[in-house]
UniProtKB/TrEMBL annotation:
Domain of life (superkingdom): Bacteria
Higher taxonomy: Bacteria, Candidatus Kaiseribacteriota
Pfam families: Lycopene_cyc
Stated name of the protein: Lycopene cyclase domain-containing protein
Pathway named in the protein's UniProt entry: Carotenoid biosynthesis
The Lycopene cyclase domain, residue ranges: 60-151
Amino acid sequence: MPVGIEEVLFAFLIGGIAAVIYQVVFSKRCERGERLVGITLFVLALTVAAFLVLKHSGFNTIWASTDALFLGAFLMIAINRSLFVDSVMSAVLIVALVYPLYWVLFAVFPEAHTIFWVSGGLSGINLLGAPVEEMVWFAAWAMFAGILYRFYKGSTSAKVLL
């Protein structure tokens, strides 16, 4: 099943929120370092390659992208360990933000599962009323997108002193 424009736009929306939510909630700012252009491009290329290999190996899209995003986040954290907390907290905050939205969606549109998801690609396991695959994907995307810019900038997080 091809990826539609709405999925791409939605992913960028969540990625944008993930990139700043940790910094906003915990009053953090980026300390600039040396830009890591080459290594960032390598991590991005490896993440995309992992997705393509997994997708063409029979994984469904959500699990192929989830695994690839976790790989990309792990690589960035392995290179810059100071991004670990940012990555994990971005995931926690995004999942905490998304759950209430899912609850409202399912309250208003009880048949949303059959409309928005390919049922054959889901395990049928719901976690607090939402498909577990969706929540794991949100966590993976937030872990990856939440630190990508800081990784590229070679930055670490510092507490903002007001």
